C-alpha cells in the first residue's frame, strides 16, 4: 500500500472546495457570450437583510441590503 493518499489539487493548493467551486463558476460565467454572460453574472449576486432579535421577536431589518460577490 502506498502511504501517500491522492489529495485533490484544490486541497493541495490550500483552498476549500467552496473557494475552488466559486473560482470555476466565475471562469465559466466570464467565458459566456452576451447576453448570457450578463444574465449569469446578475444571478451571481445574493441580497439579504440582517435583523436583530430581542425578546423572541425580530426588530426592524437594516435598511441596506448586503451584496455578496465573488471575484477573482
UniProtKB/TrEMBL annotation:
Keyword list, A-Z: ATP synthesis, CF(1), Hydrogen ion transport, Ion transport, Membrane, Mitochondrion, Mitochondrion inner membrane, Transport
The protein's name: ATP synthase subunit epsilon, mitochondrial
Record-linked InterPro entries: ATP_synth_F1_esu_mt, ATP_synth_F1_esu_sf_mt
GO biological process: proton motive force-driven mitochondrial ATP synthesis
Role according to the record: Mitochondrial membrane ATP synthase (F(1)F(0) ATP synthase or Complex V) produces ATP from ADP in the presence of a proton gradient across the membrane which is generated by electron transport complexes of the respiratory chain. F-type ATPases consist of two structural domains, F(1) - containing the extramembraneous catalytic core, and F(0) - containing the membrane proton channel, linked together by a central stalk and a peripheral stalk. During catalysis, ATP synthesis in the catalytic domain of F(1) is coupled via a rotary mechanism of the central stalk subunits to proton translocation.
Pfam families per UniProt: ATP-synt_Eps
Cell compartment(s), UniProt: Mitochondrion inner membrane
Subunit structure as annotated in this protein's UniProt entry: F-type ATPases have 2 components, CF(1) - the catalytic core - and CF(0) - the membrane proton channel. CF(1) has five subunits: alpha(3), beta(3), gamma(1), delta(1), epsilon(1). CF(0) has three main subunits: a, b and c.
An annotated GO cellular component: proton-transporting ATP synthase complex
Family named by the database record: Belongs to the eukaryotic ATPase epsilon family.
MF terms (GO), sorted A to Z: proton-transporting ATP synthase activity, rotational mechanism
